[in-house]
Write a structure and sequence with these properties.
Blueprint lengths: L6 E7 L3 H12 L4 E4 L13 E5 H9 L10 E3 L1 E6 L5 E5 H4 L5 E5 H14 L3 E3 L2 E8 L4 E7 L2 E12 L14 E17 L6 E6 L4 E7 L2 E8 L1 H8 L2 H12 L6 E4 L3 E10 L3 E2 L2 E3 L5 E2 L7 H16 L8 H28 L5 H16 L1 H13 L5
Parallel strand pairs: 1-2, 1-11, 2-8, 5-13, 11-19
Antiparallel strand pairs: 3-7, 4-7, 5-6, 9-10, 10-11, 12-15, 12-16, 12-17, 13-14, 14-15, 17-20, 18-19
Helix pairs in contact: 1-4, 1-7, 7-8, 9-10
Amino acid sequence: MKPTIDHADVAVVGGGPVGALAALGLARAGRKVVLVETRARRAPIHDARALALSWASRQRLEEEGAWPATLPATPIDVVHVSQQGACGRTVLSREDLGLPHLGLVADYAALTAALNARLEEAGVTVLWESRVTAVKSLARYAALEVESAGQRAALTCRLAVLAEGGALAETLPGIRRSVHDYRQCALLAPVTFEAPQTGTAYERFSLEGPFALLPYGDGYMLVWTRSPEEAAALSGDADMLKVAIERAMGGRLGAVTHTGPCAVFPLVLKEVNRVVSGRVVLIGNAAQTMHPVAAQGLNLGLRDASGLIETVAGSPDPGSPEALSGYAARRRLDSRAVVGFTHSLIQLFDGHDALSQWLRGTGMNLLDVVPPLRRAFASHLVFGVGQR
């Protein structure tokens, strides 16, 4: 589709879950919204990721009509946190917060398809197969250069929302992106065990690297942090992978009965120094890309989208300095706390000496036996820091 819209109240760049949620919410608030997405409307979505969505994220998507009853999702009712080879564990439960579930696991492709359908139902203008090649902010509007079908056109708006992880943000005045390469990869694979899946997610800090087993259909989705060399070797040898998983789990779920196709993703922390530049705001992966430990990246991005909707919905000018400074202030605590928490977890569980293991085990046991601490911790994971 050629870009034929020349002006909108809000232009959203990036049609993933975070950008789509922002577009839906702002359109529902009465804004004229244009979403720019590089994918074709009917193109198959080839993405192996299983998304661990908190209950709060699921509610927000449902409010926008983007969580249909037919969406396949597996509930998470319990989160079991432990470390291999040492004492200490914490168990978080839906009963701690009085929720139906702590979260749910859904395929990226299924959730994105549901959001695409909802965008169409809501009448949001989407420029499919289009790419923003430049963005700049002026006093009264932002200007985007949109390329589609070999042609370029200008799109102006009162507010531009960057919700994709490209390099556009780094072209904006005052925006700097810090990058920390973990020199690790995430190994993803569907796994089944002898023991049935019962709605428990396992977050285990193994000697080889932290890994999660997320309830996924009748089994689990493995997300294991390994070195690039180890991830490549395990992804190419199903028998080796089965043995490694069983050793890391210590027999808790019995033998591995099946592993599915593996996918490997490099792990890098990216964070911008500020999320606002003039009339341009950064949300989701444009603002921060995180390590998957604790499964907080997408949930944080969806809270970015929700915070933006709530902050600018009633503003006469959605791109005004007052509106965007209010958004930045509102999101600062949650964003910094979650990014800092996930980064610290990797450093905290990197040491495997006796003292480090004892200190970690003591901390987990303390969290487990003090209900107010446990409930506060669970609330931060589900709702965000300072968000409930």
